[in-house]
Design brief:
This is propanoyl-CoA C-acyltransferase. Keywords: Lipid transport, Lipid-binding, Transferase, Transport. One of its GO terms (molecular function) is lipid binding. Its EC number is 2.3.1.176. InterPro entries: Thiolase (IPR002155), Thiolase-like (IPR016039), Thiolase_C_2 (IPR055140), Thiolase_CS (IPR020613), Thiolase_N (IPR020616). The chain is an alpha/beta fold. It folds into 2 domains: 143 residues, Peroxisomal Thiolase, Chain A, domain 1 (3-Layer(aba) Sandwich), CATH 3.40.47.10; 225 residues, Peroxisomal Thiolase, Chain A, domain 1 (3-Layer(aba) Sandwich). Helices cover 37% and strands 18% of the residues. It is built from 14 helices and 12 strands. A hairpin with an 8-residue loop joins strand 11 and strand 12. Helix 4 crosses helix 14, helix 7 crosses helix 11 and helix 11 packs across helix 12. The longest helix has 17 residues. It starts with a strand and ends with a strand.
Length: 392
């Protein structure tokens, strides 16, 4: 397997853009990534396009890459459409990495794009509701809330975790305060205003104990990444190489001995990269709801189970500039969660961090970074998890 480096990244601002379509979002992200890499579209060998919900929201099925990228100069290139719920573009990244590492191609482009906003909000919520096994019974402890199936599922997990660890809603609110502060420093973030613990707790209940500010929002956006064999990167005058050290994809088990997919995927990634949680400097993780950030502290092994996550949060170690800066982009809660673009956006942020280009949200001297991206729901767990480890 060859060494693979990230040579270019780009992303649009994330937000609610009723006037924009997948073409517009994709074209902007691709243009930025190619310019960052210093190459032209004709130098791309293969394209991997991650999108989850276009079929539901806009009706565009089957040829999402070909239709979205038709005006980018990439027409005629091999294009692979990748759908894996909220892990669509991180899965696309995984496949592109394999193609370059194996020698199947030298330069690959990854695009994650999503158009979720719709004049009828039930269409947007309906897209999320498709990311479960429709024939599976809802888990024990599930309570219907206000129409968001996934927030009801996240709320059930939060209640269970609170009973096991003693965590309180105020701790979830502290996650949001940290997230909003990071988002205020990120020009690409959907939410740019800071908040307080009191304001988070006072926002309306979506699904107990989750308040509105504790939930990721509907949004639109796109992100793109250029991957290149190290030997080719040497000829492209890359300013600072960011190496892909590991990429793992795991699907949920439905019976027998089971561990959360995020635990399994991260363990495999650590083994492949030859690093451990103690080596990480910056993390982008899947905080689709505020409790998820704390739960993933445990899943990724950066704290002890059974209450260590709250202690880690309160210590400030996961703040911007902390020992392990977590979600310096603002994460899904503040940067936004256009589901098919989320995984790619995590990797774009980590590339900026490792290059030292993250501005006011920079984790000083970041050398090793990890992205954790979940997708869907199956048998009480995420249906898929993708973990990527990068380093300089």
């Amino acid at each position: 397997m060859r060494n693979v480096v990230i040579t270019g990244v780009g992303m649009t601002p994330f937000g609610k853009f009723l006037h924009r379509n997948l073409k517009s979002l994709s074209e902007e992200a691709v243009s930025l990534a190619l310019a960052d890499a210093g190459i032209e579209a004709e130098q791309i060998d293969q394209v991997y396009f991650g999108n989850a919900a276009a079929g539901v929201v806009t009706g565009q099925e089957m040829i999402r890459a070909q239709s979205s990228l038709r005006n980018t100069g990439l027409a005629g290139k091999p294009m692979f459409n990748v759908e894996n719920a909220c892990a669509s573009s991180s899965t696309a990244f995984h496949l592109a990495w394999l193609a370059v590492a194996s020698g199947a191609c030298d330069i690959a482009l990854v695009v994650g794009a999503e158009k979720l906003t719709h004049e009828d909000k039930t269409v947007s919520f309906g897209a999320f509701s498709r990311a479960v096994d429709l024939e599976e019974a809802l888990p024990d402890g599930y309570r219907a809330g206000t129409g968001s199936l996934f927030m009801d599922l996240y709320a059930a997990k939060a209640r269970k975790w609170m009973s096991e660890t003693g965590c309180q809603p105020g701790d979830f609110a502290r996650v949001v305060v940290k997230s909003r502060h990071a988002g205020s420093l990120n020009p690409h973030a959907q939410f740019r205003n800071t908040t307080t613990v009191g304001e988070v707790l006072d926002s309306r209940i979506v699904s107990d104990p989750l308040t509105l500010f504790m939930c990721s929002s509907i949004g639109d956006g796109a992100a793109a990444i250029v991957l290149c064999a190290e030997s080719r990167a040497d000829a492209l005058s890359v300013r600072r190489k960011v190496f892909v050290r590991a990429s793992t994809v795991v699907s949920a088990k439905v019976s027998g001995e089971r561990e959360p997919v995020a635990v399994v995927a991260s363990r495999k990634a650590y083994e492949l990269a030859g690093v451990g949680p103690e080596d990480l400097h910056v993390i982008e993780l899947h905080d689709a709801s505020a409790p998820a950030e704390l739960i993933h502290y445990e899943n990724l092994g950066i704290c002890e189970t059974g209450g260590g996550a709250v202690e880690l949060l309160r210590s400030g170690a996961t703040d911007i500039g902390g020992r392990i800066s977590v979600n310096p982009s603002g994460g899904l809660l503040s940067r936004g969660h256009p589901i098919g673009a989320t995984g790619a956006a995590q990797i774009v942020e980590l590339t900026w961090q490792l290059r030292g280009q993250a501005g006011a949200r920079q984790r000083p001297d970041a050398q090793v970074a990890l992205a954790e991206n979940n997708g869907g729901q199956l048998a009480g767990d995420s249906a898929a998890a993708v973990v990527t480890i990068l380093s300089v």
